[in-house]
Design goal:
about 150 residues, mainly alpha, two-stranded parallel sheet
């Protein structure tokens, strides 16, 4: 690891992430966000080896999706990824993997430091779903002390 390269551990994930992003961007037609959210929740339950609730994964996903204050971490992560996906001119960067895994803690922390690009996607996501965490998001830790 080179000095200062804090994202070197993500090297092996960058190309698979780029491939997923490219595939998602090429979907035609673009799936309905609610329908795709159901797929995402089902996938997360499976990967976590969790059984779907008795109501079923689709009903559970709709229940989460209907109110952004329910499972805020899940919605923020989902919407931030889709903000990135929607910008077809942007390319995936090593830091995106770490940033996307961190954005879901936003509801539970006092502040979050992200580089400007990912901060923009996170702000777009929060605005879209009506969650106001703007004052918690900064690009430089020094902003917290000014």
């Amino acid at each position: 690891m080179q000095s200062g390269d804090i994202f070197s551990g993500f090297d092996r994930y960058l190309n698979p992430f780029k491939n997923v992003l490219t595939e998602d961007r090429s979907l035609n037609p673009v799936p309905n966000m609610m329908d795709h959210f159901t797929v995402s929740i089902n996938r997360s339950l499976t990967l976590s080896r969790l059984k779907p609730p008795r109501m079923g994964a689709a009903t559970f996903a709709k229940w989460i999706y209907d109110s952004p204050v329910r499972c805020q971490a899940v919605r923020i992560s989902y919407e931030t990824y889709h903000s990135l996906r929607s910008n077809k001119t942007d390319t995936a960067k090593k830091g995106d993997i770490g940033d996307l895994s961190h954005v879901e803690i936003l509801p539970y922390v006092d502040f979050m430091v992200l580089e400007r690009r990912m901060r923009t996607y996170l702000r777009q996501a929060c605005k879209k779903i009506g969650l106001d965490f703007d004052k918690k998001i900064c690009t430089d830790v020094r902003d917290l002390f000014s």
